[in-house]
Amino acid sequence: GFGSSTSTELVEAADEFGNVNQSTGSLGQVTLTSDTPSVVDIGGSASASQSLTNGNTTFNIDANGTGTATLEATIANANISNQSLDVTVAKPSGIQLTPAHNVVTSSASDGQNQATLEAQFVDANGDAFGVTGENITFAKAPAGGDAAVLNQSDTNTKSTGPNGNVTIQVNGTDVTGDTSFIAVAENFSVQGTATVTTTGPADSISVTPESNSVTANGSTNVTVEFVDAEGRNVPIVSETVQLSADNGAVTDSPNQTALG
């Protein structure tokens, strides 16, 4: 299947071994027909005919609705068998909107004041759905808060790439708290929302072991993060943190902090 509204279909004249026969000037035209033009048509019609060049030709096909259509390539030559292909047209079920991390207030002396907000088309199972060239518009959700804003130097409407996603930057303002953003597709009735948290400056370090109980000669991972006065994660990168233990040993210390 294909997610965009227009695609192409390559038709080749091949022998019984799959080799393309490039000497096809005398074969005449190939006709490509769709049995369900309401799902897929051939350049705006139910069928179209084209001449072969070097053994092949390419048709433009348009997606008009969801479902499956059978495309059949035929040629007026009794020695050449016709071929058919099923084409499925689907559409995304939603937009997954995800911030890369928290942001800090514009007045904070440390931490990341900007974060990437990614909009990804997904199917009914939540898996990435590739829709190329679809416009997605970002905005602050109604009553979304005032602790973060879309980057003013960036455009609010962007076109998706081949993987069906697009990103925009958000910045923290001079206040802390949560701000909701929304992403809306232009040609599909889907949208997504996400919350960006704006923190204050780092106030302390939080240390969280993966397990509070370790067997003799065993080990556990420990997560260290900077937090503000409200206990929110402060996005600080490349800051060296030294971890020590009064009973036992610590490996891989010191380490630098990283986002994600």
User: What oligomeric arrangement do these chains adopt?
Assistant: single chain
Order of SSEs: EEEEEEEEEEEEEEEEEEEE
Low-confidence stretches: none
Average pLDDT over all residues: 88
Number of strands: 20
Task: Walk across the major sheet and give the strand order.
Answer: 9-16-15-11-13
- Beta-strand share of residues: 35-45%
Q: How many helical stretches?
A: 0
How would you describe the shape?
Answer: elongated
Gap between N and C termini, in Å?
33 Å
The helix-and-strand class reads: mainly beta
Radius of gyration: 28 Å
Approximately how much helix is present in the residues? Answer: under 10%
Largest sheet: number of strands, sense, barrel closure? 5 strands, mixed
Give a quick set of tags describing it.
elongated, single chain, 260 residues, mainly beta
Structural overview:
Helix content is 0%, strand content 45%. It is elongated and about 85 Å long. The protein has a 5-stranded mixed β-sheet, with no helix packed on it. Strands 4-2-6-7 form a 4-stranded antiparallel β-sheet, with no helix packed on it. A 4-stranded antiparallel β-sheet has the order 8-10-14-12, with no helix packed on it. The mean pLDDT is 88. Strand 6 and strand 7 form a beta hairpin. The two termini are 33 Å apart. It has strands spanning 6-12, 29-34, 40-42, 47-51, 56-63, 67-75, 83-89, 94-99, 103-104, 114-122, 135-140, 148-150, 157-159, 165-172, 177-185, 191-199, 204-209, 222-227, 240-241, 255-256. It has 260 residues and is an all-beta fold.
